Amino acid sequence: MNATDVVRTALLDSTQVDALRAGADEVEAWPTGSHVWGHYAEHTPDGPRICRTENVSACHPGIAALVAGTLADCAAEALGEPVVAFKDKLNYKQPGGAGFSPHQDKVAYPGVDRVMSILVAIDDCRVESGCLWLSGDARDVLPVDDRGVVRADVTAALAWFPVELASGDAVWIDGLAPHYSERNRGDVARRVLVASYAPAGERYSRAHYYAQRADRMRQETERDGRFRISTLADFDGAEVATDAPTGHCTHA
Ligand SMILES: O=C(O)CCC(=O)C(=O)O
């Protein structure tokens, strides 16, 4: 497998890219911790910057429409059957922003069987700005360490390729495909929207996923004392710890 097998060039047209960019700007301006599903910041050399917003669809109709429309069609094509969108997030990766250690989405999303994520580039994603790296070598769930990321010795034995994208391009990430990304060493942001889908027949839902996610994150943090922005402790950055969400979203 290489990047040409999994990239859809220009999945979004220029009107869709402009709308997505405007939506991401709008959401990024929300105060840290103000969105009940997660609106997280990290420490960067330029100070705290927003690094991730979870479940953007819940509070942004434009992005919700994209997740339910063009991106869902792309996921259905990849899985070869109708899909349900159960998760989406914006990853911002500002200059100096951190990457993510190698992981598999099937391990990260509690109880899901088959999953296909579509990562669409808002800004150009280059090696320098911390694009995604993928491996096509895994046929099953791989051994993990205490953070839930693929064990270093296993990671070292896999073949990896970078997935460079222009804004509007997308990449399919199968639930078993190990992937990671590096720090943004450039001077412009590398923002992406990532939406995740399960086959509709599995009856896996957004409400189920986000309830399971909250439980899993609470349990894991009780176990290891780490503040985290996902079920796995795969984020390599220094998060700005915020209080647990209260169950009330100020943007809904
Ligand atoms: O945005 C990235 O670089 C990594 C995407 C990803 O794997 C994740 O958010 O879990």
**Largest sheet report:** 7 strands, antiparallel
Count of helical stretches: 7
The helix/strand order is HEHEEHHEEHEEHEEEEH
Query: What is the CATH top level name?
Result: Mainly Beta
What is the radius of gyration computed over CA atoms, rounded to a whole number of angstroms? Answer: 17 Å
Number of domains: 1
In percent terms, what proportion of residues is strand?
A: 15-25%
Q: Averaged pLDDT, please?
A: 95
Computed structural class: alpha+beta
Record field, number of beta strands: 11
CATH superfamily grouping? q2cbj1_9rhob like domain
Distance between the termini: 41 Å
Identify the strand order in the major beta sheet. Answer: 1-9-6-11-4-3-2
Overall, the morphology is: globular
Which stretches are low in confidence, meaning pLDDT under 50 for 5 or more residues running? none
Shape-level CATH architecture: Sandwich
Bound molecules: 2-oxoglutaric acid
Task: Give your account of this protein's structure.
The chain is of the alpha+beta class. It has one domain: q2cbj1_9rhob like domain (Jelly Rolls), CATH 2.60.120.620. Helices cover 26% and strands 23% of the residues. The protein is built from 7 helices and 11 strands. The strands form 2 sheets. It has a 7-stranded antiparallel sheet with strand order 1-9-6-11-4-3-2. It has a 4-stranded antiparallel sheet with strand order 5-10-7-8. Strand 2 (39-44) and strand 3 form a beta hairpin. It is globular and about 40 Å long. The protein starts with a helix and ends in a 28-residue tail after the last helix. The structure holds 2-oxoglutaric acid (AKG). 2-oxoglutaric acid binds at residues 91, 99-100, 132, 179, 181, 192, 194.
